[in-house]
Amino acid sequence: MSRLRILVLGWYADPEKVSMPYVTYKHAAALAQLHDVSLVIEPPSEASVRRAKAPFRSIEVVSMSRLERIYAWSLRRIFKYNYDTQILTAFGYPFYLAFEWCAWRQLRRRIFAGEFDVVLRVNPMQPVLPSPFAFFLRKGPIPFVIGPLNGGLPWPPGFRQLENQKEWVSNLRGLYRFLPFARSTYRNSKAIIAASSQTYSEFTAYRDKLFFVPEPGIAASQCVDDLRKPEPGAKLQLIFVGGLVPRKACDIALRAAAPLLRENLAHFTVIGDGPERGRLDELARSLDVEKGVTFAGWVSHADVLKGLRSSDVFLFPSLRDNGAGVVFEALGTGAVPIVADFGGPGDIVLPEVGYRVALTNENDMAAQMEKILWELSRNRERLEQLRRQGMAYVRECLTWEAKAQATTRILRWAVQVGPKPSLPAPKLL
Fold this sequence. Notes:
Blueprint: E1 5-10, H1 20-32, E2 36-41, H2 43-52, E3 58-61, H3 65-77, H4 86-91, H5 93-112, E4 118-123, H6 132-136, E5 144-149, H7 160-163, H8 182-187, E6 191-194, H9 197-202, E7 210-212, E8 236-241, H10 250-262, E9 266-271, H11 277-286, E10 293-297, H12 301-309, E11 313-316, H13 325-333, E12 336-340, H14 343-348, E13 355-357, H15 362-378, H16 380-398, H17 400-414
Parallel strand pairs: 1-2, 1-4, 2-3, 4-5, 5-6, 6-7, 8-9, 8-11, 9-10, 11-12, 12-13
Helix pairs in contact: 1-17, 10-15, 13-16, 16-17
């Protein structure tokens, strides 16, 4: 069996949006290059999915017109398109159950007729949103695989950047285990794919069918050859990319870079915007480094990649980040990352390609990053070595194609046509 017939549950997959809808689509599209993939989506995503023209075997549209209108109205009027709030995840629970129930009713005859080899749920990625499909398929005829799963990252204590961002609903997260289908989802899954060390640690009871595949991915076309030609004595080019919100902790990066900026040994470009912009402007003035900092605001994705390709070091001390998409892009474009050793960035950055600083406190993190920057400014050979190794690491392990290959090995094992894959586990927590 060379090509698998995969039914992918991709609720809200959309190539023209950002974050999880985009990641879901790219993962499904990469699998479609290798297998016969039928993608199950909602009507709002249909037009953009068809415009992208990925080689899907079929696009299965599950319509829930009344519920879709309620969800869209709530997203617009109540949540103000804030996809970052955990309350939205809790709010979406009944809507997702309805989506899978309608998908089952629409496709069950074809499933039992032998049209598919396996069902893979790739979205939602939150472990707290269970899958009725796992229960429906508990006695066959085909296996159910879930993942990548991501989320549930704790809120580190002792950081003022996080004090006002933690939501009350996070204290209730553990209750999801008592919701309908919560236990059957993972008990009846043939394989569970975790995308972070945190999520992996939550499912160690299922270690015999648990696999780690990092999230998200990067297009191979973004992994171009390094064209940098640094001149002797050139400034160290530093960059931060992300929303200027407290948990991204751009202020720690700015404080770490300040000594080099004052000595005119570096330049710091900040791409992104948000409520912290004014405070960061004031911080740059108070540190007497405003001439060495460029606040670029929001720019196009193409300009983000251009900025990363012209930078030496990617400073990203985000204190709580489930994913690591921008870290993938930094590595792929040759900007050596310095990240907090926590969450998605801590899972992705290995000592051979960048630096992880311990999540201790603000002052210590800034001091750790400052020390690394001084070392890199004096040792350009080390910087170039990390750059080369990082770009090779991305090409080999972190592209969408590599992710699809890893997922393929898991799916082949799930349908009993391949050996159990020996995928490395994430770092120990």
